[in-house]
Amino acid sequence: MITREWPLAPIYGTAAVFFALDQALLGDLQNPWWAALMLAWLFAIMMLAAFAVVRHADCLAEIFGEPFGTLILTMAITVIEVLMIAAVMLTGPKESTLARDTMFAVVMIVFNGMAGLALLVGGLRYHEQTYNLQGANAFLAVIVPLAVLGLVLPNFTSAPGATFSTLHEAFLMLMSLGLYAVFLAIQTLRHRHYFVERDEVEEQAPPLTDLRPAAYHGTLLMLYIVPIVLLSKKIAVPIDYGVRVLDASSALVGMLVAVLILAPESLAAVRAALANQLQRSINLLLGSVLASISLTIPAVLAIGMLTERTIVLGLEAVDVILLLLTLAMATLTYASGRTNILLGAVHLLLFCAYIVLVLDR
After folding, report:
1. Which helix (H) or strand (E) holds 145?
2. What mean pLDDT is predicted for residues 159-187?
3. Contact partners, residue 9, CB within 8 Å, separation at least 6
4. Percent of the chain having pLDDT more than 90?
5. Domain count, the chain
6. What are the backbone dihedrals phi and psi of residue 62, each rounded to the nearest 5 degrees, phi first?
7. What is the spatial distance between Cα 197 and Cα 175, in angstroms, rounded to a whole number?
């Protein structure tokens, strides 16, 4: 089993190289080809670590049962997201839109891209798939208001430049954390049966007769998260250079960060749909969106307050339309307890619209 952990060698080797030779590798990025090589190297290594995180989180999911398994994975991915945003944000200008663009990218990629793909491949294989309607509604009941309050409302307050006043920021931070805490209580305690398959409502998590497998996978999960955290600051340097040289939009950077964060988790959700485990797929996808919004907003606002940076949360007009359309479509998709290929195709087309708008502003 330990032979499967070969990625630890290149991952920690890369971290050691970049910390030992930081100035030589990243100190002078005047050559665009060298900057691209550094970005590709770091991106590949961090992606390798992220896939390993998902692998061990899946093992923990089998040990602890649902919904704790997907919750462990969601929290691990969210920690990576917050730390990456913070690293890139702290290397950039005083006014940052990265958190806004990354959260918007997470919503678009998950709701439209990966959920659409999961529904499409699941529908092609099984014609129709079912899930627990109460669980999906619980996710959406928290995601929709937080997304609108966090990404749309700043455009209509008295604060300048699509931002919040200090009072508004404090309120949004408390509200986001409070709603997520209530949701976790629902998901793990009072209404845990909302988040498992209908025919598994009465099942309990498998008894933990031996904690050694859980300790083994938990330790390795943390070992793979640590280098992602360490390298987040390093990958921020070539990203910032690319934005300045190519005059790229901040939305493209947000999408890049979101892809790095979400790729392993999203592929796990698609595999679950192919295995006719649509409930697990929904728990992974909607759980990642909820955690991203409800935990990232308080984290970046707190960083902004501590570092005296201006955090721009309000989306541009075209993105507001796409966000509201996506949220409306999601409420229709998860309104019946059954899915088919039509719903998947519609979400994938909305994802294509997002890609076009990111590439051609």
Report:
1. helix 133-151
2. 89
3. none
4. 25
5. 1
6. -65, -35
7. 30
Using alpha carbons, select from 303, 275, 353 the residue that is nearest to residue 111.
353
Instruction: Tell me the two tokens of residue 235.
Output: 């990958």
pLDDT of residue 234: 85
* First-to-last C-alpha distance (Å) of the chain: 48
Average the pLDDT over 75-97 and give the result.
77
Beta bridge partners of 130: 338
Q: Which tokens sit at 204?
A: 């309990």
Residue pLDDT, tens place only, 316-339:
999 999 999 999 999 999 888 888
Residue 24 lies in a domain: no
For 231, the domain range is 2-13+29-359
CA 111 to CA 109: how far, in whole Å?
6
Tell me whether residue 19 is in a domain: no
What is the DSSP secondary structure assignment for residue 107, as one 8-state letter? H
AA letter at 313? L
Provide the 8-state DSSP code for 162: S
In this structure, what DSSP letter does residue 275 have? T
- CB neighbours (10 Å) of residue 225? 20
Report whether pLDDT(202) > 50. Answer: no
Three-state SS annotation for 5-58: HCCHHHHHHHHHHHHHCHHHHHCCCCCHHHHHHHHHHHHHHHHHHHHHHHHHHH
Residue 311 falls inside a structural domain = yes
Q: What is the dihedral of CA 264, 265, 266, 267, to 10 degrees?
A: 50
Q: Is residue 235 part of a domain?
A: yes
Confidence label for 307 from pLDDT (cuts 50, 70 and 90)? confident
